[in-house]
Amino acid sequence: EYTGMSKERMMEIRRKNCNPMIMKVTSYKKPVFIHQGHMQWLWDVDGKRYLDLFAGVATVSVGHCHPKVTAAAEQQLKRLWHTTNIYVYPPLHEYCEKLASYLPDPLKVVYLTNSGSEANDLAMLMARLYTGNFDIITFRGSYHGGSPQTMGLTSNAAYKYPIANGLGCTNTMCPDVFRGPWGGSHCRDSPVQTIRECSCAQGYCMANDQYIGQLKETFATSVPSRIAAFFGEPIQGVGGAVQYPKNYLKEAYKLVRERGGVCIADEVQTGFGRTGSHFWGFQGHDVIPDMVTMAKGIGNGFPMGAVVTTPEIAASFAKGVHFNTFGGNPVACAVASSVLDTIKEDGAQQNSLNVGTYLMTELAKLRDKYEIIGDVRGKGLQIGVEMVKDKASREPLPPEAMSEIFEDIKDMGALIGKGGVYGQTFRIKPPMCITMEDADFFLAIFNKSIHNYMERR
Ligand code: PMP
């Protein structure tokens, strides 16, 4: 039972002493006061239970307070809290070797950070030093961080400030087969296809060609002939689980490398088994990046991030000194190491595939039933449900309507996220321990919330 600070008092402190921006992002009209978590469940201070389908933004990978991971943290806390990379200590080395074993050659050199923004900052720096070039390309609608450098990679006005940020970053058209002009219904790697007309003939995808054409136009119009890097999430996270035509990344990587750039996969949301079919999102695109950046799920909620790159790129970076006090902290390493073991022991990746595919298949039935569900997409437990005014116009469902449904779902006991450039996409990315019964529990709630909204409308 909760006997701590009152809700009113917390709100008062929040108004006075906390980052007020949090208030805007916390878009529930009646806030949720979380007290405790276990696996896929959260409890508020009144003892009400919620099925957590957002996992702190795809961050709690194996489950809240997972007993095995908690035990690993406890053990390390008793032995050694902190030392730095100046010294050689076991947890760091055990973890770097283990993490590297999950990546294909030549991705074998690990840098540990404390967040995703920090990992992407480091990747930007390394790419520029290694290539000797400056310009970096990312997708519109992407989120890669909130630091002044990574804000330039991020392409979503909601997260931008009017300062000189991320100089040398250019955003190119996102190859979004639902919202984009060219459609493409069978060319994305998801159990659910779009409702858009298919322009794909056998072995040829017109939409893909058009989107690659846009990338070529970005090269021709907006950057010098030599570039430093291309950043792409295998499936957009904050952007709303946006997926690209199957061959897009493969062709884009080739074009980027022809221009001297390195290819960087931001796996902050898609890594660690979340996409189900593969451990890393990039594997679903049949590419091998030159750098992979990670955070969130890497520590099951423990603050941590990483960049993994090739020995060649690492060598060029080793010419200077890069130091990070907390990067590779022993407790973080022990936790992350246990997370890797737990994903394997719990069969979390396979569960992501099974439950995620089931969820999407059932959600697609609701899409066919309701005019305001425009698209269901994703892979594994990285799922987006894009809401529209109507299927013909594909105009985003307005924020007030999104909020009403969002609030209703919360009141019925499930927490999901919102995203997309217009805030029009519901995001489902639960801890990977979620069960089929949980999926049914959510599907009933989601159906009811849309039904309620349609009745009110
Ligand atoms: N990359 C992606 C894909 C993300 O979703 C995020 C966070 N939403 C980041 C990077 C930044 O991570 P952090 O908040 O840990 O800095």
From TrEMBL:
It holds the Pfam family Aminotran_3. It comes from the Eukaryota. The keyword Flavoprotein does not apply. Keywords: Aminotransferase, Mitochondrion, Pyridoxal phosphate, Transferase, Transit peptide. It catalyses: L-ornithine + pyruvate = 5-amino-2-oxopentanoate + L-alanine; oxaloacetate + L-alanine = L-aspartate + pyruvate; 3-oxopropanoate + L-alanine = beta-alanine + pyruvate; N(omega),N(omega)-dimethyl-L-arginine + oxaloacetate = 5-(3,3-dimethylguanidino)-2-oxopentanoate + L-aspartate. Its EC number is 2.6.1.18, 2.6.1.40, 2.6.1.44. GO terms for biological process: glyoxylate catabolic process; L-alanine catabolic process, by transamination. It is found in: Mitochondrion. Multifunctional aminotransferase with a broad substrate specificity. Catalyzes the conversion of glyoxylate to glycine using alanine as the amino donor. Catalyzes metabolism of not L- but the D-isomer of D-beta-aminoisobutyric acid to generate 2-methyl-3-oxopropanoate and alanine. Catalyzes the transfer of the amino group from beta-alanine to pyruvate to yield L-alanine and 3-oxopropanoate. Can metabolize NG-monomethyl-L-arginine (NMMA), asymmetric NG,NG-dimethyl-L-arginine (ADMA) and symmetric NG,N'G-dimethyl-L-arginine (SDMA). This is Alanine--glyoxylate aminotransferase 2, mitochondrial. It comes from Sander lucioperca (Pike-perch). The gene is agxt2.
